[in-house]
Amino acid sequence: MAESQFVYVTYIRTTPEKLWRALTEPEFTRQFWHDTIQECEWKPGASWRIVTPDGRTADSGEVVEIDPFRKLVLTWQHQLHPEARAEGYSRLTYTLEEKGDSVKLTVLHEMDKSDSKLIKAISGGWPMIIASLKSLLETGEALSATRRWPEGM
Amino acid sequence: MCAMSAEVDKVFKALAAPERRLLLDRLRADNGQTLGELCQHMDMTRQAVTKHLKVLEEATLVATIRRGREKLHYLNPMPIHEIAERWIDKYERGRLRALAELKAKLEGENNG
Hints:
heterodimer, A: Alpha-D-Glucose-1,6-Bisphosphate, Chain A, domain 4, 7-stranded antiparallel β-sheet, 4 helices, 7 strands, 37% strand, B: mainly alpha, Arc Repressor Mutant, subunit A, 6 helices, 11% strand
């Protein structure tokens, strides 16, 4: 069982299709995920990476499981900070469930290592990214803090 | 806007009970616990804990994940984050943190 885990749940007034596109397509991620894009063929076993605005790989891994508009499981290794990188792969699961006029998005980030530095660092970033994603889908505008890559990172 | 304020009402109502804040503290200390684990060292019946967890879950302050036969409870920071986003300006964050740290330090000195 994973030792370090974080779970984020939010309800977004949108459709599973739109939310799925927002989580995977560059025109959306650029707005709520610090101007980054994800490169991936989005099929099982495909490699996956998050690319910073200046072309560096921030995180990378593989698609473990993909069930469009419902579930996406990725392995995830951070690449920019040596300490977090040394921890190896974590696992990220997105679950999308339609609930009335909303979609319940569950983001589960876990690592088989207690006191993971990566999970700790990421737990500060996820709430802002998810809040911005919600804002983008519901109001058409992402939060200003997430539209740019953080300076000096 | 109405749906939004109903969500916020649920969060504040859930946070209004000390028993429920205690449950959130327990999850913050050790995230991903079963009902049985959460009941340990609690001055509450299992039924009372179940009831409080239900209120927390409806307010999305607690999220549950099934793992085999177990249901694990996690602290979900999203609603509190949204409340902070709404009333705390981003430029105030650094100053508020410094003040909170100063308060913790001074109070720690007094207690020690």
